[in-house]
Fold:
Amino acid sequence: MNNISDTINTAVEALSSPESLEGLFHQVHDNVPLPSNAALDEMMGLARGILFPGYFGQSKVTQDTIKYHIGVALERFSRLLKKQVMAGLCFCLDKDAEFAVADVRAKSQEITCEIVRRLPRMREILATDVEAAYNGDPAATSFGEIISCYPVIRTLTNYRLAHELHLLGVPLIPRMISELAHSETGIDIHPAAEIGHHFTIDHGTGVVIGATCIIGNNVKLYQGVTLGALSFPLDADGNPIKGIPRHPILGNDVIVYSNATILGRITIGDRSVIGANRWVTDNIAPDTKIYKNVKMTRGFENGYGI
Structure:
């Protein structure tokens, strides 16, 4: 008959061995833990309330109290962000590196201040995304409905903040923020992707936008669209080469209908329209319309064909 204590001790020894932990163990630096999904989720809830007051977070906001509510939320947001950025910076340090906690703390403070400075501009861009969603959907009745109900706005709030953190060189945190939105809405946007103003995704479920995508202004995607990589070049050892452009470039005023797949470092020219369920791996000239077994009807070119 097996002894449970002996069995546990044997398992502990096996699970603690350096060989079994190779690449799977994170050792904290100076007691700074990994970033927290729970803290980042709270932080993004505060960010949404700051950027869209009255729609997220505290609902009893008036013009007389808005400064108070934004101030309280922004103070809490900043504390959470600084702590999580510090955890992210520590995460990327070599396990044997010697560093001063004060230096990392100062860098975290600098990045946090810069993000706070960028919030007004972030709201300006998100306002264009709200406008694009409203103008692109005949079923929408108000901007308020777009902000409250449409998953694209929740996703883009996370993406636009995560993208700024990515630009500032913060590791891990941007991807975690994007994945929070991915889990919530089913829309997967890598924080490194570059997306212009007046961007929207109708319905949204199943959309994938890769890390090196560049998307212009006034672009509209539908559900199930993939902007992905066609192949992964390998190095001399047979491992994928990272950090090279491998995802599509979409020009301005492009529409991509549901379940279309666009792969590789190709360019979809300005004002082009890609019909539903199309597979595209070659450059598309500006003003090109690619449909399949679709009879054009009035409104199709404006994004109302579904």
The chain has a mean pLDDT of 89.
